[in-house]
Amino acid sequence: MDEGIDISRPALLSPLGAALAVSGGLLFGVILALIGALNAPPPVPAGPGREGPSINREPVRGGGAASESDAERYRRLVDFGDRCYADGVARLKQSDPLENPSGWAEANEAALDLLDRSVGYYNEALEIREEKRVVDRVRDANFKRMAARKRKLEAGARTE
User: Fold this and answer.
1) DSSP state of 35
2) What is the C-alpha separation between 122 and 124, in angstroms, rounded?
3) Is the pLDDT of residue 23 over 60?
4) Would you call 59 helix, strand, or coil by DSSP?
5) Separation between Cα atoms, residue 138 and residue 151, nearest integer Å
6) How far apart are CA 3 and CA 52, in angstroms?
7) So what's the pLDDT on residue 41?
8) How many CB atoms lie within 10 A of CB 32?
9) Nearest C-alpha neighbor of 2 from the set 41, 53, 37
10) End-to-end Cα spacing for the chain
11) CA atoms of 139 and 146, how far apart (whole Å)
């Protein structure tokens, strides 16, 4: 091996030399690559004043426990959201002024509150993990919330 070229240097191939070697000018590319290797600065050894990056080699502990609690929290939030959603839809059905002329306003207010709470629970669950079923439920709950708000605003406009 030629003693003039140190192949242990990090910049053995210059980018231009490597590109020319690959593109077809093989001899010219190899010459430029060797010149780049000769002109590269020598590597700085790690010493007491210059240490390399520290690598933490300790194993990660508790990774499964945190994800398990997230899964439990996710299930709990989705369950709360499902209960509030089901109760909100039931109250929304009771808030029809033609079907329930005396108590529709209270039922509509309760439906709006329950649907708002369900969307809050679903959004908190979506921060943990995004699932299509929950995203669809948020969209559906938002449509039902709009219907309840519209009914509330229309009732307020009729009384004024």
Assistant:
1) H
2) 5
3) no
4) coil
5) 20
6) 28
7) 60
8) 20
9) 37
10) 98
11) 11
Burial class (CB in 10 A: 0-12, 13-18, 19+), 29: buried
pLDDT in tens, 33-75: 666 656 656 655 555 555 544 555 554 444 444 455 888 999 9
E strand or H helix at 158: helix 132-159
Question: If DSSP codes are grouped into helix, strand and coil, which group holds residue 78?
Answer: helix
Q: Phi then psi for 6, rounded to 5 degrees?
A: -100, 105
**What confidence tens digit (pLDDT) does each residue in 100-139 have?**
888 888 999 999 999 999 999 999 999 999 999 999 999 9
Token output for 138: 């948020």
Task: Find tokens 């109250």 and name the residue.
Answer: 91
Distance CA 95, CA 99 (A): 8
The residue behind tokens 């899964």 is: 71
What is the pTM assigned to this prediction?
A: 0.55
Mean pLDDT, residues 15-43: 57
Q: Is 91 exposed, middle or buried (0-12, 13-18, 19+ CB in 10 A)?
A: buried
Closest CA to 98 of 86, 84, 108, 109: 108
Tokens 């993990």 label which residue? 129
